[in-house]
Amino acid sequence: MPIIVNIDVMLAKRKMQSKELAEILGITQANLSILKTGKAKGFRFETLEAICKALDCQPGDILEYREA
Questions:
Q1: How is residue 41 annotated by DSSP?
Q2: What are 18-64's pLDDT values in tens digits?
Q3: What does the alpha-carbon distance between residue 50 and residue 25 come to, in Å, rounded to a whole number?
Q4: Which CATH superfamily is domain 3-65 in?
Q5: Would you call 63 helix, strand, or coil by DSSP?
Q6: What is the rounded CA–CA span in Å between residue 23 and residue 38?
């Protein structure tokens, strides 16, 4: 898939664990894992906004397009 999800990169930059982000977002670690691995079929803008707020970043820091 040409859309790459860089949540792990931002978590590392912010020195935050997945568990902490999942708690802030109010989702399970399993659901966060699905988002992080790019296995999710889509993102709600509400979820993307919450991730950006929690990680103090922009949507472009989380999502990246690469041609296949």
A1: S
A2: 999 999 999 999 999 999 998 999 889 999 999 999 999 999 999 99
A3: 6
A4: lambda repressor-like DNA-binding domains (1.10.260.40)
A5: strand
A6: 20
